[in-house]
Specification:
Elements (H helix, E strand, L loop, with lengths): L5 H8 L5 H13 L3 E7 L5 E4 L10 E2 L4 H8 L3 E4 L5 E10 L2 E11 L7 H21 L5 H5 L7 H9 L4 E4 L2 E8 L8 E6 L3 E8 L4 H20 L4 H16 L6 E8 L4 E7 L3 E6 L2 E5 L18 E4 L5 E5 L1 H4 L11 H10 L8 H13 L8 E8 L17
Antiparallel strand pairs: 1-2, 1-6, 2-3, 4-5, 5-6, 7-8, 8-17, 9-10, 10-11, 11-12, 12-15, 13-14, 13-16, 16-17
Length: 403
């Protein structure tokens, strides 16, 4: 059995708020680094913010047009020499299982040809180890959560972000990315995912109401669904029990539009319950299509609702996008709704981006339509790239109806 590296051992022994200080000290000693900085992606995924004791930190940098942002977007090391050529800064992605957390920037004395491949590999191992420990440390310290904030979150947004599983993840069979807007003042839109050896469960919810009421409703629904899923119940029973929990609490006065999906990883067969849902778009072989489903009652609208699953098939190379009503209902300054044609064009224009970057890019197009005024509703975009599992595929599908 391989023993943990010195970096991993040191991180495990450190207090949660000290793990970055430990990594910085190790890198400075081993590589004689001039500076080591950790930048965390903010909630809107537009800025990378230095970790430190506020307000004594350096200014944030843009995700879109900076050297650290290039490493963050490409998810690979990016090295930049200073003007005099005396130092070089290596920017390394800090990510865990596809969830992009930030960037570790290390400034070294410049050598011939820049840092060697071995040095970059060691630094990337430090960044990877730090990423795992940041996820664990967030249970016990606010340091890294505070560093992600470009502005103060509303209480409803605080509740929603704590509910989410992450903003991206990846396995050999699939890649996922999701984003919510307005990031610092979201109400009730939400998403959830969980994977086992052979199944991926996804939930996409379009919240009802505003502020704390919307956040409380979504928290109730997501936790009811998780409770049922973790009890080993199938998709139909998950929907039924969440429906009963919401109706039992609100007697039909509040309800939640939700998509529930189960992807069978070996075959690409998809089971889905459309409970008054957000909508699904598919990009296959360059063609953008809306997937039509038979809508059923939202969770909690009526007592004792019976849900019936539907089925379709995903193929390697497929991209699915799940879009909440806040996207379709967004109004321009002139009062014009964001059209399905504009959304399809945005999906096509972002086809070369990885799944983790697509939601932010689509929402940026939406902001161009809506303008700078305050949003009247949440907007949620989730992107799933299906790669498929190597090996023979069983036919477990029924035809997809497309509108």
């Amino acid at each position: 059995m391989d023993r943990p590296s010195a970096v991993e051992r040191s991180l495990r022994e450190a207090a949660p708020h000290e793990i970055f200080d430990v990594v910085r000290s190790l890198i400075e000693r081993r590589h004689h680094a001039r500076a080591v900085e950790l930048l965390m992606a903010d909630y809107a995924m537009t800025r990378l913010q230095p970790v430190g004791v506020l307000p004594h930190t350096r200014p944030p940098v843009s995700v879109h047009d900076s050297a650290p942002g290039r490493a963050f977007g490409a998810q690979e090391a990016h090295c930049v020499s200073d003007g005099s050529g005396s130092t070089v800064t290596a920017h390394l992605p800090v990510s865990v299982r596809g969830d992009r957390l930030g960037v570790l920037s290390v400034t070294l004395e410049a050598g011939a040809g820049g840092p060697s491949a071995d040095v970059l590999e060691e630094l990337q191992e430090c960044a990877n180890a730090l990423a795992h420990e940041v996820v664990v440390a967030e249970r016990d310290t606010d340091l890294f959560l505070q560093a992600r904030r470009a502005e103060r979150l509303t209480l409803a947004a605080e509740m929603q972000w704590q509910l989410l599983p992450g903003r991206s993840c990846a396995r050999p069979e699939y890649s996922l990315g999701a984003q919510l807007e307005p990031a610092y003042a979201i109400f009730g839109d939400s998403f959830d995912w969980s994977a086992s050896a052979d199944d991926l469960y996804l939930t996409v919810s379009n919240g009802m109401g505003e502020g704390i009421d919307a956040a409380l409703l979504t928290n109730l629904a997501i936790n009811a669904l998780r409770n049922a899923r973790r009890a080993g119940l199938d998709l139909v029973d998950q929907a039924y029990l969440a429906d009963q929990a919401i109706h039992g609490q609100h007697q039909g006065s509040h309800y939640l539009s939700t998509l529930l999906l189960r992807f069978h990883l070996p075959t690409g067969a998809v089971e889905i319950i459309d409970a008054g849902s957000p909508r699904i778009w598919r990009l296959r072989a360059g063609v953008v299509e809306a997937i039509g489903l038979e809508a059923q009652m939202p969770l909690g609208m009526f007592d004792d609702t019976t849900y019936v699953p539907q089925h379709f098939q995903v193929e390697p190379g497929d991209r699915l996008l799940f879009i909440s009503d806040g996207v379709y209902d967004a109004l321009s300054p002139g009062g014009e709704k964001y059209s399905s044609r504009a959304l399809a064009a945005s999906i096509s224009a972002t086809r070369l981006l990885p799944a983790a970057q697509v939601p932010r890019a689509v929402l940026r197009e939406l902001l161009g339509h809506r303008g700078s005024g305050p949003a009247v509703d949440d907007s949620l975009v989730m992107c799933l790239d299906w790669h498929g599992r190597p090996g023979p595929v069983q036919d477990a599908s029924s035809p997809t109806r497309v509108i």
